TrEMBL record:
Reactions mediated catalytically: ATP + H2O = ADP + phosphate + H(+)
Occurrences of domain Helicase C-terminal (ranges): 292-465
An MF annotation (GO) of this entry: hydrolase activity
Residues of the full protein shown: 295 to 1074 of 1074
GO BP term, pick one: mRNA processing
This protein's GO CC annotations: catalytic step 2 spliceosome; U2-type spliceosomal complex
Domain of life the protein comes from: Eukaryota
Transmembrane annotation, as ranges: none
Protein's name in the database: RNA helicase
Length: 780
């Protein structure tokens, strides 16, 4: 393999090609990808005493090795040792014993369900076994799906390491807005959503010889849809191999779905885990978790801790809390290494969770649900489980989704506890009562397909030519109501016509890997010649949760810096402004530092934007710009987001006699002179607020929005997303005109309906006296 590329004897590296060549030798040496003989040769080549060293340090050589060369040799020796240990680790995994049996079963059965405990080696080893067994010959690929971005990235990196190749070469990954693969890639890890999109360009997935639908038990929306699609292509691609791999849950169900496919059960190594419950329910689980960590740290023998939290905010708060506590304790206690892991964590920081813990110290990993099954962290002996998870919940009755922190299921609690028993006997501390475990938790997590908006999926299936979506081969059917809501939304967006067929607009929308409401906004922006601005806003919205940098000790500074970006027109324009100023500053990191922005997030926004712009080209949307204009941009966005709109409901100060309102504001009091239901409700809430335009559901402007405190408060607002904390909050808000609703979404709002809304929200004439009392939605 190296013969042909070896430079001619006697010629040493003088040009760039040859330099690269020698670098490759070194990489291969390091990772053990070369056999002994080639290694020796390569040593001669790279480190020839009399001449070879020359390319490293021109003319510094005098027949002996320089210090640098010696250091390099040492490094190579160390790396070789590591390469050895990587091979040993591979062979120590539970799945290794079954390698040959597995390959036989795969050869024999087109579909195989592989079940093994988390950490057995399914994700990292199965694709390599297939590769070693020749499934990647002739340019064919092995694909492996992951429900989570972070898992796809970290596992690909690990496998690249194991195979001694550079990430993106033989082993690569593909996640939304980031493609880390090349022509050379034969093992491709990807999110399930990305494989789903590949069906659009290659409906037979003809470049894959084998597909592994991994972490099947997670039952994400995309995985569930994939099940139906891959089952279908397996019928007319008999040579295609399908592996459904799952932790120890639901295997029978998968097997049954794939026409009674055989189940290959890899027995796990599992040590007993002692369970501990709290006596009383915990009011504040973060507090309880921190206390538990410290108790473990000071009283329990060696072993790392894994704590499950619901999201980045909680993880950061806990990290700070722990750091402060540890600082206060000083050197009274041994070192505690705090390692967070969540989806938006920059990848170079993710590596920290995998680093071995030094002797005498203890590591505590603060993780989202990602550590439940997708990622295995060695060395964990103690698990702390507060019993919550953040998930998206959709209510087909109202058509609204929001992110909600919810109790986990018993199945999930068992998986979490299991993470403690991988290296030896472990302990799981559940921050809830035994009674709650038995009586309050559901047995299984409800699959995402049954609790999410399906507009995206329906649009995708429609573009794949699957017309009868209601009767698609689902593992678990989504509620018919949800599918019907999706049809309604797609019809209202103009993606489907009145016969339920995909329109040209719908076809164009399906090209974009974003929510149909966003893709509609992008495509619609061409009518207003402001695609440039809309693209930026939409890309910013994708990252808006992790954009602002607010370190605790500089919070005031940060908030002040962020205030400078506020622009009229709503939060969307603030986002636009941030991006444009950053662009003007040549996308510099320094600028982010000065303005308290997360550089990584902005870089991602730029990538997302570039990709969306590329897709615009594909569907022939011309990217024009209308700088400094507000209304056209607002309208373009409203054309996609009319579904997420609310109108104002007025609140009344309790210290003002109701009669004052009565004479001026119709509808405030009912016929009997009592406060109407609306008024009373508003008074109870004290905060006042907004109601969704279609369902009259109460929602509130998020405290981070620039619309807070706006006078007069806008009558109609469009929001990007809802988050449920103490109340249902709208995040990323923009004021709009009520009349736009029937103008831009005539399939959804009729004129009289809008006029009526304007009547209750718009036409109220407030006397000055009342206006001064800040009647109107009290936003703060
Ligand atoms: O998929 P499954 O849960 O069965 O196991 P895996 O993800 O293939 O992990 C097998 C082993 O690889 C783990 O026990 C870890 O020791 C190691 N691994 C790692 O060190 N770093 C990663 N990013 C992923 C896995
Ligand atoms: Mg796995």
């Amino acid at each position: 393999r190296y013969e042909e590329s070896k430079p001619v004897e006697g010629q040493f590296v003088t040009d760039v090609d040859q330099w690269e060549e020698s670098q490759r030798y070194k990489t291969d040496l390091r990772t053990g990808a070369m056999d002994r003989e080639v290694v020796e040769e390569a040593y001669d080549y790279v480190f020839d005493e009399s001449q070879g060293i020359q390319f490293l340090q021109e003319g510094r050589l005098d027949g002996t090795l320089t210090a640098e060369a010696q250091a390099m040799l040492d490094q190579i020796a160390a790396a070789e040792k590591k390469a050895m240990s990587i091979q040993e680790t591979r062979q120590s995994l539970p799945i290794y014993e079954f390698r040959d049996e597995l390959l036989e079963a795969i050869a024999e059965h087109q579909v195989l369900v592989v079940v093994a405990e988390t950490g057995s080696g399914k994700t990292t080893q199965l694709p390599q076994y297939l590769h070693e067994a020749g499934y990647t010959k002739g340019g064919m690929r092995v694909g492996c799906t992951q429900p989570r971005r972070v898992a796809a990235m970290s596992v690909a990196a690990r496998v690249a390491d194991e195979m001694g190749s550079r990430l993106g070469q033989e082993v690569g990954y593909s996640i939304r807005f980031e493609d880390m693969t090349s022509d050379k890639t034969v093992l491709k890890y990807m999110t399930d959503g990305m494989l789903l999109r590949e069906f659009l360009t290659d409906p037979e997935l003809s470049t894959y010889s084998a597909l592994i639908i991994d972490e099947a038990h997670e039952r994400t929306l995309s995985t569930d849809v994939l099940f139906g699609l891959v089952k279908d292509i397996a019928r007319f691609r008999p040579e295609l191999r399908l592996l459904i791999s799952s932790a120890t849950l639901n295997a029978q169900k998968f097997a049954a779905f794939f026409d009674d496919a055989p189940i290959f059960d890899v027995p796990g190594r599992r040590f007993p885990v002692d369970m501990f419950y709290t006596q009383q329910p915990e009011a504040n689980y973060i507090h309880a978790a921190v206390t538990t960590i410290l108790q473990i740290h000071t009283t329990q023998p060696k072993g790392d801790i894994l704590l499950f939290l619901t999201g980045q905010d909680e993880i950061e708060a806990t990290e700070e809390n722990l750091k402060e506590t540890m600082y206060a304790l000083g050197d009274k206690v041994p070192e505690l290494i705090i390692a967070p892991i969540y989806a938006n964590l920059p990848s170079e920081m993710q590596a920290k969770i995998f680093e071995p813990t030094p002797e005498g110290a203890r590591k505590v990993v603060l993780a989202t649900n990602i550590a439940e099954t997708s990622i295995t962290i060695d060395g964990v002996v103690y698990v702390i489980d507060p019993g919550f998870v953040k998930q998206n919940n959709y209510n087909p009755k109202t058509g609204m989704s929001s992110l909600v922190v919810e109790p986990i299921s018993r199945a999930s609690a068992q998986q979490r506890a299991g993470r403690a028993g991988r290296v030896g006997p472990g302990k799981a501390f559940r921050l809830y009562t035994k009674w709650a475990f038995k009586n309050e938790l559901l047995q299984d997590t409800i699959p995402e397909i049954q609790r999410t908006n399906l507009a995206n999926v329906v649009l995708m299936l429609k573009s794949l030519g699957i017309n009868d979506v209601l009767n698609f081969d689902f593992l678990d059917k989504p509620p018919a109501e949800t599918i019907i809501r999706s049809f309604e939304l797609l019809y209202a967006l103009g993606a489907l016509n009145h016969k339920g067929e995909l329109t040209r607009l719908g076809r164009r929308m399906a090209e974009f890997p974003v929510d149909p409401m966003l893709s509609k906004a992008i495509i619609n922006s061409e009518n207003y010649k402001c695609t440039h601005e809309v693209l930026t806003i939409i890309s910013m919205l994708q990252e808006s949760g992790s954009l602002l940098y607010r370190p605790k000790d500089k919070r005031v500074h940060a908030d002040k810096a962020h205030k400078n970006f506020i622009k009229p027109g709503g939060d969307h324009f603030t986002l636009l402004n941030i991006f444009e100023q950053w662009a003007d500053a040549n996308y510099s990191q320094q600028w982010c530092y000065e303005n308290f922005m997360q550089y990584k997030s902005l870089v991602r926004v730029r990538d997302i934007r570039d990709q969306l712009a590329g897709l615009c080209e594909r569907v022939e949307v011309i990217i024009e710009s209308l700088p400094n204009e507000i209304i056209p941009v607002q309208k373009a966005i409203t054309a996609g987001y009319f579904y997420n709109t609310v109108s104002a409901h007025y609140t009344f100060s309790t210290s003002v006699p109701l009669s004052i309102y009565k004479s001026h504001i119709s509808g405030a009091l009912d016929d009997k002179g009592e406060g109407s239901e609306l008024t009373l409700q508003a008074r109870i809430d004290k905060g006042g607020g907004y109601r969704t335009t279609k369902n009259n559901h109460s929602v509130y402007v998020h405290p981070s929005s620039c619309l807070i405190g706006m006078q007069p408060p806008p009558r109609f607002i469009l929001y990007y997303e809802l988050v449920l904390t103490s109340k249902e909050y709208m995040r990323q808000c923009m004021p709009i005109e009520g009349t736009w609703l029937s103008e831009l979404a005539p399939h959804y709002f009729n004129k009289s309906e809008v006029e009526q809304m304007m009547g209750s929200a718009g036409k109220v004439k407030m006397p000055k006296q009342v206006a001064e009392l800040k009647v109107g939605p009290v936003l703060a």
